[in-house]
Amino acid sequence: MQEDFLDDLGDLGFTARFKRISDTLVYSAREHYKQINIGIEPNWHLIFLLLKKEGQLTVTDISQRLRFSHPAVIKITKQMKQGGYLESLVDPKDRRKQFLSLSKKALRELPGFEEEWANILGVIRGFVDDALLQGLYRLEQNLNEKSFTSRYAERYRKQPASPTGKFTIRNAKPSEFGAVGKLMVQVYSRLDGFPHRHEQPEYYEMLANIGSLTKKPQAALLVAVAPRGEILGGVVYFGDMQYYGSGGTATLEKDASGFRLLAVDHKARGLGIGKQLTQECIERTKASGRSQLIIHTTKAMQTAWKMYENMGFKRSGDLDFMQGDLPVFGFRMPL
Protein backbone atom coordinates (compact mmCIF):
# COMPACT_ATOMS: atom_id res chain seq x y z
CA MET A 1 0.00 0.00 0.00
CA GLN A 2 1.24 3.49 -0.85
CA GLU A 3 2.37 5.60 2.09
CA ASP A 4 -0.05 8.23 3.37
CA PHE A 5 1.55 11.64 2.89
CA LEU A 6 -0.58 13.11 5.68
CA ASP A 7 1.14 10.71 8.08
CA ASP A 8 4.46 12.25 7.01
CA LEU A 9 3.10 15.75 7.56
CA GLY A 10 2.07 14.99 11.12
CA ASP A 11 0.37 18.00 12.74
CA LEU A 12 0.53 19.98 9.48
CA GLY A 13 -2.00 17.52 8.06
CA PHE A 14 -4.51 18.31 10.82
CA THR A 15 -7.06 20.25 8.75
CA ALA A 16 -6.59 17.99 5.72
CA ARG A 17 -7.56 14.98 7.83
CA PHE A 18 -10.81 16.68 8.86
CA LYS A 19 -11.56 17.42 5.20
CA ARG A 20 -10.75 13.89 4.11
CA ILE A 21 -12.86 12.28 6.85
CA SER A 22 -15.76 14.61 6.06
CA ASP A 23 -15.58 13.88 2.34
CA THR A 24 -15.45 10.12 2.97
CA LEU A 25 -18.49 10.16 5.26
CA VAL A 26 -20.51 12.42 2.95
CA TYR A 27 -19.74 10.26 -0.06
CA SER A 28 -20.63 7.07 1.85
CA ALA A 29 -23.91 8.56 3.08
CA ARG A 30 -24.83 9.74 -0.40
CA GLU A 31 -24.19 6.27 -1.86
CA HIS A 32 -26.18 4.67 0.96
CA TYR A 33 -29.17 6.95 0.30
CA LYS A 34 -29.07 6.00 -3.38
CA GLN A 35 -29.02 2.29 -2.56
CA ILE A 36 -32.12 2.52 -0.35
CA ASN A 37 -33.83 4.97 -2.71
CA ILE A 38 -33.97 8.00 -0.38
CA GLY A 39 -33.83 11.21 -2.41
CA ILE A 40 -32.03 13.46 0.06
CA GLU A 41 -28.47 14.62 0.58
CA PRO A 42 -26.14 14.33 3.59
CA ASN A 43 -26.47 17.27 5.99
CA TRP A 44 -30.12 17.83 5.04
CA HIS A 45 -31.04 16.04 8.25
CA LEU A 46 -29.78 19.08 10.18
CA ILE A 47 -32.33 21.34 8.48
CA PHE A 48 -35.09 18.74 8.78
CA LEU A 49 -34.57 18.33 12.53
CA LEU A 50 -34.05 22.04 13.24
CA LEU A 51 -37.26 23.04 11.43
CA LYS A 52 -39.15 20.16 13.04
CA LYS A 53 -38.20 21.66 16.40
CA GLU A 54 -38.65 25.37 15.60
CA GLY A 55 -41.44 25.30 13.01
CA GLN A 56 -40.13 28.11 10.81
CA LEU A 57 -36.87 30.03 10.56
CA THR A 58 -35.13 32.42 8.18
CA VAL A 59 -31.94 31.44 6.35
CA THR A 60 -30.04 33.75 8.71
CA ASP A 61 -31.60 32.04 11.73
CA ILE A 62 -30.58 28.63 10.40
CA SER A 63 -27.06 29.87 9.64
CA GLN A 64 -26.68 31.18 13.18
CA ARG A 65 -28.14 28.09 14.84
CA LEU A 66 -25.94 25.67 12.88
CA ARG A 67 -22.96 28.05 12.67
CA PHE A 68 -22.79 27.35 8.95
CA SER A 69 -21.91 30.10 6.50
CA HIS A 70 -24.85 31.98 5.01
CA PRO A 71 -24.00 30.86 1.43
CA ALA A 72 -23.79 27.22 2.56
CA VAL A 73 -27.28 27.37 4.10
CA ILE A 74 -28.68 29.07 0.99
CA LYS A 75 -27.26 26.25 -1.17
CA ILE A 76 -28.70 23.47 1.02
CA THR A 77 -32.15 25.04 1.42
CA LYS A 78 -32.35 25.78 -2.31
CA GLN A 79 -31.75 22.10 -3.05
CA MET A 80 -34.32 21.09 -0.43
CA LYS A 81 -36.88 23.44 -2.02
CA GLN A 82 -36.21 21.90 -5.41
CA GLY A 83 -36.82 18.49 -3.86
CA GLY A 84 -40.14 19.68 -2.49
CA TYR A 85 -39.10 19.47 1.16
CA LEU A 86 -39.26 23.17 2.11
CA GLU A 87 -41.84 25.92 1.79
CA SER A 88 -41.17 29.67 2.10
CA LEU A 89 -43.41 32.36 3.54
CA VAL A 90 -42.87 36.13 3.26
CA ASP A 91 -43.04 37.96 6.58
CA PRO A 92 -46.04 40.36 6.29
CA LYS A 93 -44.26 42.83 8.61
CA ASP A 94 -41.02 42.85 6.61
CA ARG A 95 -41.24 41.87 2.93
CA ARG A 96 -37.46 41.38 2.82
CA LYS A 97 -37.67 38.47 5.24
CA GLN A 98 -38.71 34.93 4.27
CA PHE A 99 -39.42 32.10 6.66
CA LEU A 100 -38.70 28.48 5.74
CA SER A 101 -40.72 25.54 7.02
CA LEU A 102 -41.07 21.84 6.25
CA SER A 103 -43.47 21.02 3.43
CA LYS A 104 -46.28 18.46 3.63
CA LYS A 105 -44.04 16.07 1.69
CA ALA A 106 -41.26 16.53 4.25
CA LEU A 107 -43.60 15.95 7.20
CA ARG A 108 -44.98 12.84 5.51
CA GLU A 109 -41.58 11.31 4.84
CA LEU A 110 -39.80 12.53 7.99
CA PRO A 111 -40.67 9.52 10.23
CA GLY A 112 -39.02 7.17 7.72
CA PHE A 113 -35.99 9.45 7.48
CA GLU A 114 -35.64 9.60 11.26
CA GLU A 115 -35.73 5.81 11.48
CA GLU A 116 -32.92 5.62 8.92
CA TRP A 117 -30.89 8.31 10.69
CA ALA A 118 -31.14 6.29 13.91
CA ASN A 119 -29.72 3.28 12.03
CA ILE A 120 -26.90 5.41 10.61
CA LEU A 121 -26.14 6.75 14.09
CA GLY A 122 -25.84 3.18 15.33
CA VAL A 123 -23.20 2.48 12.68
CA ILE A 124 -21.32 5.71 13.44
CA ARG A 125 -21.26 4.93 17.16
CA GLY A 126 -19.37 1.79 16.24
CA PHE A 127 -16.29 3.79 15.25
CA VAL A 128 -16.74 7.17 16.98
CA ASP A 129 -16.40 7.20 20.77
CA ASP A 130 -17.34 9.78 23.40
CA ALA A 131 -13.74 10.90 23.84
CA LEU A 132 -13.55 12.00 20.19
CA LEU A 133 -16.87 13.85 20.40
CA GLN A 134 -15.78 15.63 23.58
CA GLY A 135 -12.51 16.56 21.90
CA LEU A 136 -14.36 18.06 18.94
CA TYR A 137 -16.62 19.98 21.33
CA ARG A 138 -13.62 21.44 23.17
CA LEU A 139 -11.96 22.34 19.85
CA GLU A 140 -15.03 24.32 18.73
CA GLN A 141 -15.33 26.01 22.12
CA ASN A 142 -11.69 27.07 21.98
CA LEU A 143 -12.08 28.52 18.48
CA ASN A 144 -15.25 30.36 19.50
CA GLU A 145 -13.48 31.83 22.52
CA LYS A 146 -10.51 33.05 20.50
CA SER A 147 -10.09 32.89 16.73
CA PHE A 148 -7.09 31.48 14.89
CA THR A 149 -6.17 35.00 13.75
CA SER A 150 -6.08 36.29 17.33
CA ARG A 151 -4.02 33.31 18.48
CA TYR A 152 -1.53 33.82 15.65
CA ALA A 153 -1.24 37.54 16.39
CA GLU A 154 -0.74 36.84 20.07
CA ARG A 155 2.00 34.30 19.36
CA TYR A 156 3.99 35.92 16.55
CA ARG A 157 3.23 39.58 15.99
CA LYS A 158 5.36 41.91 18.03
CA GLN A 159 3.57 44.59 20.01
CA PRO A 160 5.17 47.98 20.77
CA ALA A 161 7.25 48.02 23.94
CA SER A 162 5.11 48.85 26.94
CA PRO A 163 5.03 48.29 30.71
CA THR A 164 1.88 46.21 30.15
CA GLY A 165 3.63 43.78 27.80
CA LYS A 166 1.60 41.59 25.44
CA PHE A 167 -2.14 41.27 25.75
CA THR A 168 -4.73 38.60 25.07
CA ILE A 169 -8.12 39.06 23.40
CA ARG A 170 -10.84 36.83 24.87
CA ASN A 171 -14.37 36.79 26.29
CA ALA A 172 -14.65 38.63 29.59
CA LYS A 173 -15.26 36.55 32.69
CA PRO A 174 -18.28 37.48 34.86
CA SER A 175 -15.86 38.39 37.64
CA GLU A 176 -14.35 41.02 35.31
CA PHE A 177 -17.62 42.73 34.32
CA GLY A 178 -17.32 45.36 37.04
CA ALA A 179 -13.76 46.33 36.05
CA VAL A 180 -14.76 46.58 32.37
CA GLY A 181 -17.75 48.78 33.26
CA LYS A 182 -15.51 51.08 35.30
CA LEU A 183 -13.07 51.33 32.38
CA MET A 184 -15.90 52.15 29.96
CA VAL A 185 -17.17 55.00 32.15
CA GLN A 186 -13.66 56.43 32.56
CA VAL A 187 -12.88 56.34 28.84
CA TYR A 188 -16.17 57.78 27.58
CA SER A 189 -16.38 60.49 30.24
CA ARG A 190 -12.96 61.83 29.15
CA LEU A 191 -13.84 62.20 25.46
CA ASP A 192 -13.88 65.82 24.31
CA GLY A 193 -17.29 66.68 22.91
CA PHE A 194 -18.98 63.56 24.33
CA PRO A 195 -21.99 64.01 26.67
CA HIS A 196 -21.19 64.02 30.38
CA ARG A 197 -22.74 61.65 32.89
CA HIS A 198 -25.29 64.18 34.14
CA GLU A 199 -26.41 64.79 30.53
CA GLN A 200 -27.03 61.11 29.67
CA PRO A 201 -27.22 59.19 32.96
CA GLU A 202 -28.93 56.15 31.40
CA TYR A 203 -26.13 55.76 28.86
CA TYR A 204 -23.46 55.82 31.57
CA GLU A 205 -25.51 53.39 33.64
CA MET A 206 -25.39 51.02 30.66
CA LEU A 207 -21.61 51.48 30.45
CA ALA A 208 -21.16 50.75 34.15
CA ASN A 209 -23.24 47.58 33.85
CA ILE A 210 -21.88 46.53 30.47
CA GLY A 211 -21.66 42.88 31.53
CA SER A 212 -25.46 42.67 31.49
CA LEU A 213 -25.37 42.98 27.69
CA THR A 214 -23.94 39.45 27.51
CA LYS A 215 -27.39 38.16 28.50
CA LYS A 216 -28.60 39.06 25.01
CA PRO A 217 -28.53 36.19 22.48
CA GLN A 218 -25.25 35.92 20.55
CA ALA A 219 -23.68 38.86 22.41
CA ALA A 220 -20.18 38.73 23.89
CA LEU A 221 -18.09 41.16 25.91
CA LEU A 222 -14.55 40.94 24.52
CA VAL A 223 -11.60 42.21 26.51
CA ALA A 224 -7.89 42.81 26.02
CA VAL A 225 -6.08 41.48 29.08
CA ALA A 226 -2.48 42.08 30.18
CA PRO A 227 -0.36 39.12 31.39
CA ARG A 228 -1.11 39.98 35.02
CA GLY A 229 -4.85 40.16 34.41
CA GLU A 230 -5.29 43.93 34.03
CA ILE A 231 -8.15 44.89 31.70
CA LEU A 232 -6.73 47.14 28.97
CA GLY A 233 -9.78 47.50 26.73
CA GLY A 234 -13.11 46.03 25.76
CA VAL A 235 -15.92 45.95 23.20
CA VAL A 236 -19.36 44.34 22.93
CA TYR A 237 -19.93 42.08 19.92
CA PHE A 238 -23.49 41.41 18.71
CA GLY A 239 -24.03 38.36 16.52
CA ASP A 240 -27.70 39.28 16.09
CA MET A 241 -28.42 42.90 15.15
CA GLN A 242 -31.91 42.93 16.67
CA TYR A 243 -30.18 43.09 20.07
CA TYR A 244 -27.65 45.74 19.02
CA GLY A 245 -29.46 48.38 21.03
CA SER A 246 -28.59 51.56 19.14
CA GLY A 247 -30.90 54.20 17.76
CA GLY A 248 -31.72 54.44 14.06
CA THR A 249 -32.33 51.49 11.78
CA ALA A 250 -29.33 49.30 12.63
CA THR A 251 -31.40 46.79 14.58
CA LEU A 252 -33.39 46.04 11.41
CA GLU A 253 -30.32 45.00 9.43
CA LYS A 254 -30.27 41.40 8.19
CA ASP A 255 -27.33 39.08 7.60
CA ALA A 256 -25.13 41.33 9.74
CA SER A 257 -23.21 41.48 13.00
CA GLY A 258 -22.15 44.57 14.89
CA PHE A 259 -20.07 45.85 17.75
CA ARG A 260 -20.46 48.79 20.09
CA LEU A 261 -18.78 50.49 23.02
CA LEU A 262 -15.12 50.02 22.08
CA ALA A 263 -12.87 51.46 24.77
CA VAL A 264 -9.13 51.32 25.50
CA ASP A 265 -7.49 52.40 28.76
CA HIS A 266 -5.61 55.65 28.17
CA LYS A 267 -2.49 54.08 29.72
CA ALA A 268 -2.49 51.38 27.02
CA ARG A 269 -2.94 53.59 23.94
CA GLY A 270 -0.61 52.87 21.04
CA LEU A 271 -0.47 49.10 21.58
CA GLY A 272 -2.95 48.27 18.82
CA ILE A 273 -5.57 47.10 21.30
CA GLY A 274 -8.48 48.84 19.59
CA LYS A 275 -7.45 47.37 16.24
CA GLN A 276 -7.13 43.85 17.67
CA LEU A 277 -10.53 44.05 19.37
CA THR A 278 -12.01 45.22 16.07
CA GLN A 279 -10.23 42.46 14.16
CA GLU A 280 -11.64 39.85 16.54
CA CYS A 281 -15.16 41.13 15.78
CA ILE A 282 -14.40 40.92 12.06
CA GLU A 283 -13.20 37.32 12.41
CA ARG A 284 -16.28 36.31 14.41
CA THR A 285 -18.53 37.83 11.77
CA LYS A 286 -16.70 35.98 9.00
CA ALA A 287 -16.92 32.72 10.93
CA SER A 288 -20.67 33.18 11.35
CA GLY A 289 -21.11 33.53 7.58
CA ARG A 290 -22.75 36.96 7.77
CA SER A 291 -22.07 39.36 4.93
CA GLN A 292 -21.41 42.62 6.80
CA LEU A 293 -20.27 44.17 10.07
CA ILE A 294 -21.97 47.33 11.35
CA ILE A 295 -20.64 49.91 13.82
CA HIS A 296 -21.25 53.47 14.98
CA THR A 297 -18.95 56.23 16.18
CA THR A 298 -18.99 59.98 16.85
CA LYS A 299 -16.91 63.03 16.00
CA ALA A 300 -15.51 62.84 19.55
CA MET A 301 -13.85 59.53 18.66
CA GLN A 302 -11.55 60.68 15.86
CA THR A 303 -8.82 58.12 16.60
CA ALA A 304 -11.32 55.26 16.35
CA TRP A 305 -12.96 56.85 13.29
CA LYS A 306 -9.65 56.92 11.40
CA MET A 307 -8.81 53.37 12.50
CA TYR A 308 -12.17 52.05 11.24
CA GLU A 309 -11.70 53.68 7.84
CA ASN A 310 -8.15 52.34 7.55
CA MET A 311 -9.45 48.84 8.29
CA GLY A 312 -12.04 49.03 5.50
CA PHE A 313 -15.24 50.34 7.10
CA LYS A 314 -17.29 52.65 4.89
CA ARG A 315 -19.64 55.45 5.93
CA SER A 316 -23.34 54.56 5.72
CA GLY A 317 -25.52 57.58 6.27
CA ASP A 318 -28.66 55.44 6.43
CA LEU A 319 -27.43 54.14 9.81
CA ASP A 320 -26.94 57.61 11.36
CA PHE A 321 -29.06 58.72 14.30
CA MET A 322 -29.16 61.27 17.13
CA GLN A 323 -28.31 60.20 20.69
CA GLY A 324 -29.97 63.13 22.45
CA ASP A 325 -28.11 66.11 21.02
CA LEU A 326 -25.17 63.97 19.87
CA PRO A 327 -24.92 62.95 16.17
CA VAL A 328 -23.91 59.28 15.83
CA PHE A 329 -22.51 58.04 12.51
CA GLY A 330 -22.89 54.58 10.99
CA PHE A 331 -20.32 52.47 9.17
CA ARG A 332 -20.41 49.14 7.34
CA MET A 333 -17.75 46.62 6.36
CA PRO A 334 -18.81 44.20 3.59
CA LEU A 335 -17.35 40.72 4.13
What gross morphology would you assign? globular
Helix and strand element order: HHHEHHEEHHHEHHEEEHEHEEE
Strand content: 15-25%
Euclidean distance between termini CA atoms: 44 Å
Number of H/I helices: 12
Largest sheet: 8 strands, mixed
Radius of gyration: 24 Å
Number of strands: 11
Structural class: alpha+beta
**Helix fraction bin:** 40-55%
Poorly predicted tracts of residues: 158-164
Mean pLDDT: 88
Describe the structure in your own words.
The chain is an alpha+beta fold. It contains twelve helices and eleven strands. The protein has helices spanning 5-9, 14-35, 44-54, 59-66, 70-82, 104-124, 130-145, 148-156, 177-189, 201-208, 273-288, 302-311; strands at residues 56-57, 86-91, 94-102, 168-171, 219-225, 231-238, 256-264, 292-297, 314-315, 321-323, 326-334. The strands form two sheets. Strands 4, 5, 6, 7, 8, 9, 10 and 11 form an eight-stranded mixed β-sheet that branches. The longest helix is centred in the first third of the chain and has 22 residues, at 14-35. It is globular, with a radius of gyration of 24 Å. Residues 158-164 have low confidence and may be disordered.
